[in-house]
């Protein structure tokens, strides 16, 4: 039995304000609000924690979801992790769409970095109103068996040195 997931059903984060989050994702990223669920109790743990769970649809069928939990202390971030590390990357179809997204975000007052030409993709980066870092990206390389073999070789070298891996001939340079 192959347990490799078919794709992303949803990823969930905390939000400060469900309405503000809805405005951002629906108006600036064109992601429709497709579901909203409220409860006094957490479905999995049964603990009391009043919340709303909102879902925004992506074209591939997956969703980006948020919980507003107003009775919990204000949300923070891990002070030991650089702000650029934890982020959500969302794929766009082409450069024209990426540039249009950047213009739309900037027109709304969102600070955007990029486009940056990375190893696997070209991306722009920005923060949503909750402080979550987002990346909008177009792919340059589709992972395959060659990139998988290279990834394991790079990982082994990294584990030995904990520094940038250089001078390793790749089956599929990226």
Explain what you see.
- This protein has a domain at 1-72: 2,3-Dihydroxybiphenyl 1,2-Dioxygenase, domain 1.
- 24% of the residues lie in helices and 32% in strands.
- The radius of gyration is 19 Å and the shape is globular.
- The two termini are 32 Å apart.
- It has helices at 18-28, 95-107, 145-161, and strands at 10-15, 33-41, 48-57, 63-68, 87-91, 113-117, 121-127, 133-139.
- The protein has 174 residues and is of the alpha/beta class.
- Going by CATH, what is the homologous superfamily of the domain at 1-72? 2,3-Dihydroxybiphenyl 1,2-Dioxygenase, domain 1
Q: If helices are DSSP runs of H or I spanning 4 or more residues, what is the number of helices? A: 3
Quote the CATH topology of the domain at 1-72: 2,3-Dihydroxybiphenyl 1,2-Dioxygenase, domain 1
Mean pLDDT, all residues? 95
Give the helix/strand layout.
Blueprint: E1 10-15, H1 18-28, E2 33-41, E3 48-57, E4 63-68, E5 87-91, H2 95-107, E6 113-117, E7 121-127, E8 133-139, H3 145-161
Parallel strand pairs: 1-4, 5-8
Antiparallel strand pairs: 2-3, 3-4, 6-7, 7-8
Could you write a compact summary of the structure shown?
It is built from 3 helices and 8 strands. The chain has 174 residues and is α/β, with parallel strands linked by helices.
Features:
alpha/beta; 3 helices; four-stranded mixed sheet; 2,3-Dihydroxybiphenyl 1,2-Dioxygenase, domain 1; 24% helix; 174 residues; globular; 32% strand
């Amino acid at each position: 039995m192959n347990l490799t997931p078919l794709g992303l059903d949803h990823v969930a984060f905390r939000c400060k304000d469900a309405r503000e989050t809805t405005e951002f994702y629906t108006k600036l990223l064109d992601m429709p609000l497709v579901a909203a669920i409220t409860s006094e109790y957490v479905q999995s743990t049964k603990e009391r924690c009043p919340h709303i769970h909102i879902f925004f649809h992506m074209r591939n069928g997956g969703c980006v979801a948020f919980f507003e939990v107003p009775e919990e202390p204000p949300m923070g971030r891990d002070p030991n992790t650089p702000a650029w590390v934890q982020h959500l990357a969302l794929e766009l179809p082409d450069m024209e769409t990426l540039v249009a997204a950047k213009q739309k975000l900037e027109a709304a007052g969102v600070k955007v970095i990029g486009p940056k030409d990375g190893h696997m993709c070209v991306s722009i980066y920005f923060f949503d109103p909750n402080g979550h870092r987002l990346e909008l990206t177009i792919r340059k390389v589709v992972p395959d068996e060659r990139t998988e073999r290279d990834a394991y070789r790079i990982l082994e070298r990294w584990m030995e040195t904990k520094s940038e891996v250089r001078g390793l001939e790749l089956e599929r340079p990226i």
